[in-house]
Structures are given as structure tokens and as C-alpha cells.
Amino acid sequence: MVSRTQGSTAAFPPLETLHLPVGNSGHSSDETLELSDSDSSSSTEVEDVAVPQEEAPIAASLGVSDQVQPEPPQLLPSSAEHEDHDAEEAEVQHKQRTPLKKPDVTVPLDEEEGDTCAICFEQWTNAGEHRLSALRCGHLFGYTCIVRWLKGQAGKCPQCNKKAKRSDVVVLYARTLKALDTSEQERMKSSLEKEQMLRRQAELESAQSRLQLQVLTDECSKLRKQVQELKALMAQHSTSASQQPGSSRSCFPGCLSSSQSQHKYHFEKAFLVSQSGSCRVMAYCDSLSCLVVSQPSPQATLIPGCGVKMMSAANLKSSQYIPIHSKQIRGLAFSNQTDGLLLSAALDHTLKLTSLTTNTVVQTYNAGRPVWSCCWCLDDTNYIYAGLVNGSILVYDLRDTSSHVQELAPQKSRCPVVSLSYLPQMASTTLPYGGVVAGTLEGGCFWEQKASNSYRPHHLPLEPGGCIDIQTEISTRHCLATYRPNKSNNCLHCVVMELSCNQLTDASVDVVCSCHPVQTFSAGPTCKLLTKNAIFQSPEEDGSILVCAGDEASNSAMVWDAGSGSLLQKLQTDLPVLDICPFTVNRNNFLATLTEKMVKLYKWE
């Protein structure tokens, strides 16, 4: 019998004095345990839980078997109190058996790294000495840590080693600092931009391919037409050769045939261009059947400067004057298109395009230096060339109205480019490549046009010094170089040369373009002016080549047969010849000679 009012020493008597019925359901609970009315319900709950916990070690110390355990004393109050007591006891036992769960405070690694100081590896705070601070480079630290670091180190950031000082430390007022992860968004944006760029590039390549296809189709049509014309010409020549087996025509070693025709140039008409002189160059427009000649303004007081005078080749009458430049014109050229655009170069640093249909200047380019010569690209009429006084060649694109798109720098001397002519690409065994032939006062250069509008220079082996003009003949790939009198040759002489190309090695793709002399013609002993001569197909259409050059000593224009080297004619003029222009209109062949004041026309008959 244990009384609940007894002390702690009497609560657990020796085990032999406790009579705990085991398996005996016949005894009443009153015979086993007496309760005092003075105990509160709270003490009952505590001792009901504490007694079983203290009985276990006592029983173990006394050697009691695990199979026979003393049952705790049962309280049998009233039925309502009994139910409440059972519920409370079950809840307490469940709390004892269930371990306490710690709150899940696991923080991802990247967040832990973003919340810690890189110096002490402790989390920074939003207040106090270790509050969040930053340097000018943007790296974050605890305030005390970065201040001590800058005092003890060489004034550098611990992470990026950029220079820093105590005044660079800035306290950040932020409760929490979180970096928004936009790496995936940036990666997708970069992928999108890359795909858009590839798409634009593909569209551009597609457009270029379509344009190249159109150009190649047109070129193929032209080549087919030329093949048909050549076949007809070969058939005609074979017929004439069979009828005249004793023909006196011979083939020159330089692949130039000689002509022994009885036809010659006869004087047709003379035009007075400028009474004051200063005429310089001329050019012929095939689509408009018009010859244009440069001259100073006839009304210098009202319209100063220089321009061109138009002359109709159909009725052999002079037309109106068109003002273009403010200084002397040094070059005129027409394209092979039917738009009637005149390209002009002058000493006023400009290159201009003039429409002869409206008689107005439609485009002006400022080269920055005096322009001495000009020409069109016959492979692509969107490009034009300008030869400058310093030896450079500027490439212009008509679709770009602001400035030149490329500059071809001089290779050796920086002498003025006195002549420019373009050789188009064609099926030729000697020189199939296209490019620009530039003549300077010191020599010549062939600028081979490669893919993507790039150019490769080839120095032409001409005589050193004294070159005043280089003209080309497109179909036979020959050029005519004119030289002043010098120590080795005391007279004006013209040299016909054949352009050719050779591969560097058998496996090499690059070639070397050069020229070799074929025929030499000599004129008078004087040459004070920079004149322009001509090399062209014979009006006989027999494949022979004619050369015409001015002679200052006799004030005449001399016509040679390039095949035989013989002098065919000597056309008399009143003044030294400055420019020569052959042209054809209505199946009639003419030769125009220009002096400072006058143009003379000669007809092939």
C-alpha cells in the first residue's frame, strides 16, 4: 500500500513489500493502491508518467526478467475522469515516443555563397559592424572585414585585384540580397540573335546567288551571240579564202593579222569647239550616237568653269554646251549601258555623272585630290574608277553616294594616273581575267579583279620613265603604250604589247599577269603634251588591228597597221593632236581627232 501523500523516499519501498498482482483479475484496485484526495490532477499526470520511467532501472538493478515487468499502478476514478485521464496519458506517451523534428533550414549552396563574406566566410548582416558593404568594382564583403583587408593589403580587391581604397567602401542598406538568375534567358536571347543573324546571312546569300545567276545568264546569252557571230565570220572568211588562194594577208608573230585593203580614212568634216582653246579629251556614246568634247565655258563671265559640247554623229552637227566642272576636265568615259550617263574627271577634285538625256549632273563624288583619269567597270556597271594625282585609284559604287568603297594604293612611284582602261573577263587563252589597266608617268600596272571585289596588282614590265599613255584593245588583249623621246630613243614611239598570264607553279591557283612587246612605231622627235592615242579593230573587220597616234612635230595623226608595222596614213591637222576616238554609226566608220580648238572627222572609205 503506497500513499500519495508520502515523501519521495516512501514512494518506492523495497520490491518485496510491493504486492503487485500479476495475471490476477479478481483483486480490486482498492486493495492495491490508496489515493489521497489532496492530490491535484496535474501531480497525478506527472507521477503516472514518472513512475514507469524510474521502475525500469530499479527492476534492472534487481535482476528482474524482461518477460515479467511490474505493471504501473492504475488509477480508477470516476468514469468521466477515467476517460480524460486515458486521453491525456496517450498523448504524453506519443510525444515521448516521437522524436522532435528540427525545422528544415537547409539553404542551397549558391544562396549560402551569396550570403557570406569572401574574407571571413561568415554571413554578413544588415546592421552592425559586419553589415553588407561593397567596393567600386561591385564585389560584396562584410564592412569590418574589407576595412581591415584594405589596411593590411596593397589596396586591392580580394576577388578581382582591382585597386581600391578606404573611401571606396560603400555600405549597402538591404535586408536581403538576391541575384535573379537570368542566365537561361540570356542564353536563349543569344541563341535567338545568332539564329536571326544566320537567317539574315542566308537571305543575303540567297539574294546574291539570284543576282549572280541573272548576271551569268546574261553573260551566257552574250557569249552565245558572240559564238554565233564568230561562226558566221569564220564561214565568211573561209569562203573568201577559197576564192582568193593567193591572198597577201599574213599572220604576225604577235597574233595580229595585217590588212592590205585599199580603203583609207578621208576627211569628212571639221568642228570648231572653242575659239580660246583648252580642249582636252573626248568620248563617244554609242546609244545616243553622240560625240562629247571637253572645253572651257563659252560664257566664262556668266557660267565659269568647264563642261562638254555635244556633237551629233548622225547628222554631223554640233549641239549645246553642258557645264559640269569648275576646273579643267581630264577624263571622259561612257558605260556599255543605254542610259546615256557620262563619267567625267577634273582637276577640281571631283568625279561626276552627267545624264545626257536631261543635261544635268546626277551624282558628284569628292575625291579630295585632283582626278586625272576615269573609267567604267565593264563587268559590273555599278562600279567606276578614278585615277588621282598621287597614283592612287579610288573605286566607287554608284549605290553608295557618300564616298569611295576601296582605294588601290600605288605600288611604286606616286606619279599621276594619266590613263585608266578596263578589260572585262572573257574566254581568252592569253588573259581570261578582268581588271583595270592603269598607266602612270613611271610605268603601268594591271589590277586583277578577284572575287568579292578584291584586287591584286601585277606590275607591267614597261620602259622606265617617259610613259604618257596606255590604251587597250578588249577583244585581242593588246595594249598600246606611248613613250616620250629619251636617251635610248630620241623620238616619240608607241609599243604594242600582248597581255598574258602564267601560273606560278603547276599546283598554284594564283597567276602572274605580264606583257611582252609585239610591235613598235616611231613618230616625231618632240612631245610636250600628254596626248591620248588609240588602238582599235580595223574597219575592214578582218581581224587586223590599227594604231593611231598624234605627231607633234608634223601636226598630224599617223595610222599604222599593227600586223605589218607599216604606216597606212598621215592625217594632217592644224595643231598637235591631243585625243583620238574611233567610232561607228549607221554602219559607217569614223575617226575623230581633237586639237586644242577643233575636232576633225575622217570617214573610212
TrEMBL record:
Can you tell which superkingdom this protein's organism belongs to?
A: Eukaryota
Record's keyword annotation contains Hydrolase: no
Its pathway, per UniProt, is:
Protein modification; protein ubiquitination
SMART domains from the UniProt entry: RING, WD40
Gene Ontology molecular function terms on file = ubiquitin protein ligase activity; zinc ion binding
Q: What is its EC number?
A: 2.3.2.27
Q: Which GO terms describe its biological process?
A: interstrand cross-link repair; protein ubiquitination
Q: Where is this region: Disordered?
A: 1-108
RING-type domain span: 117-161
Keyword entries, A-Z = Coiled coil, Cytoplasm, DNA damage, DNA repair, Metal-binding, Nucleus, Repeat, Transferase, Ubl conjugation pathway, WD repeat, Zinc, Zinc-finger
Report the subcellular localization: Cytoplasm; Nucleus, PML body
Residues in a coiled coil are: 199-240
| UniProt GO cellular component terms | cytoplasm; PML body
For this protein, what reaction is catalysed?
Answer: S-ubiquitinyl-[E2 ubiquitin-conjugating enzyme]-L-cysteine + [acceptor protein]-L-lysine = [E2 ubiquitin-conjugating enzyme]-L-cysteine + N(6)-ubiquitinyl-[acceptor protein]-L-lysine
Q: Which coarse location class describes where this protein primarily resides?
A: cytoplasm
List the PANTHER family hit by this protein, alphabetically. Answer: E3 UBIQUITIN-PROTEIN LIGASE RFWD3, RFWD3 PROTEIN
Task: Quote the protein name from its UniProt record.
Answer: RING-type E3 ubiquitin transferase
